[in-house]
Design a protein that fits this description.
Layout (H helix, E strand, L loop, with lengths): L13 E4 L3 H18 L8 E2 L2 E2 L10 H8 L1 H11 L8 E11 L4 E5 L6 E8 L7 E4 L22 E4 L5 E6 L4 E3 L8 E10 L2
Antiparallel strand pairs: 1-9, 2-5, 3-4, 4-11, 5-10, 6-9, 6-11, 7-8, 7-10
């Protein structure tokens, strides 16, 4: 008997290991800590006890601008995998920010409305600093399932990714995601951004 399984409607999380990330991360961390000194209250979004910066200003030569240039090819690659047309002047990073999670800080489950893609880039990621958790957007799958289920790519309702310095995750903005508490003694520092297509 010949069997073929169609895997329709997958939920992609694209993971990129950035070249020469150590130099990049030193620059980003310095920039982020300077932003923290200017405004240590930040914003309240999904962060619980952690610090969420205000959106970065893109000024030529600053770390946010340099980072955006560095990861432009990653965004292009994601568009290519989706089969979306990539027109440079219309594809925009509409907002970029940082989150610092100290010990016991975490992020509640949330989405990024009014965007196509969202991201997490790991500037500092000590061991046990909190995995990112993605939720299955197919709500009905949570209502009925057999007992003692073996979790597979078809049946799991959550998936976790352990953060790794120099790794950029890009994912659809509609995916619900959260971050586990940081149980380490060191700060967890990320940069996030949203990507939109401007008409």
């Amino acid at each position: 008997m010949k069997v073929h399984t169609y895997k329709f409607f997958p939920q992609p999380i694209f993971s990129f290991e950035i070249d020469n990330y150590k130099t990049l991360n030193i620059e980003l961390e310095k920039f982020i800590l300077e932003e923290f000194k200017k405004d240590n209250e930040g914003l309240k979004r999904s962060n619980v006890n952690g610090w969420h910066s205000k959106p970065f200003k893109f000024e030529k030569g600053n770390a946010a601008h340099n980072f955006a240039l560095k990861i432009e090819n990653c965004i292009f690659d994601v568009f290519k995998q989706y089969g979306w047309p990539y027109i440079g002047e219309k594809v925009k990073i509409t907002e970029m920010w940082s989150i610092i999670n100290k010990k016991n800080s975490f992020n509640e489950s949330h989405i990024h409305p009014n965007s196509f893609l969202s991201s997490a880039y790991y500037v500092r990621a000590p061991k046990n600093c909190g995995n990112i958790i993605f939720n299955n957007p197919n709500q009905i799958s949570r209502n009925r399932f057999p007992k003692d289920i073996k979790k597979t790519e078809f049946s799991a309702n959550i998936q976790k990714i352990e953060p790794k310095e120099g790794t950029l995750l890009i994912f659809p903005s509609y995916l619900w995601h959260s971050v586990e508490p940081n149980t380490s003694e060191k700060d967890r520092i990320i940069v996030s951004f949203n990507v939109n297509i401007i008409d």
